[in-house]
Specification:
Elements lengths: L1 H36 L5 H27 L6 H31 L8 H24 L1 H10 L2
Helix pairs in contact: 1-2, 1-4, 2-3, 3-4, 4-5
Length: 151
């Protein structure tokens, strides 16, 4: 039974880390873009859009994609790179371009005023968070850290 619990914990790691890192990045975006740089608009709607829908939804999506396409197929630096690329592709490019288009209607996050900065910031956050999540999932030291915190 212990082996089964360990397998379930390892299986859930990519999704949990995807959500944790995506929500963290979206909190940064929400505070910087939604509160400081572009404070106009409904704060509750901004929070729901950025942190809840994008953070949780897209984080779970990236985590599931890592579980489907990386876990058990790649190891070490190749797996970490794959996590970074999946994160950049899904969050940094696809999700960011969708949000840029939506922001052109709602004007919540400054996408219309600074589209290149808007997209570049998302790509950079996705690359960093995907790399760190990949390191935690696929490196020996990262696995030890996750074991210590119970993820």
């Amino acid at each position: 039974m212990e082996n089964l619990n360990e397998q379930i914990r390892v299986f859930n790691r990519p999704v949990k880390l995807g959500i944790i890192f995506s929500v963290g990045a979206e909190l940064i975006i929400f505070v910087l873009w939604g509160l400081i740089l572009y404070p106009n608009g409904n704060i509750v709607y901004k929070f729901l859009w950025a942190v809840v829908f994008c953070g949780v939804g897209m984080g779970a999506t990236v985590g599931a994609l890592i579980q489907l396409f990386v876990v058990g197929r790649l190891t070490n630096s190749k797996a970490i790179l794959a996590c970074a690329l999946l994160s950049v592709g899904v969050l940094g490019i696809a999700c960011n371009l969708l949000c840029l288009n939506l922001d052109s209607h709602f004007h919540y996050f400054g996408g219309v005023d600074s589209p290149y900065f808007f997209v570049a910031g998302g790509v950079i956050l996705a690359a960093v968070s995907g790399s760190v999540a990949g390191w935690l999932i696929f490196s020996t030291k990262g696995k030890q850290i996750l074991d210590n915190v119970g993820i």
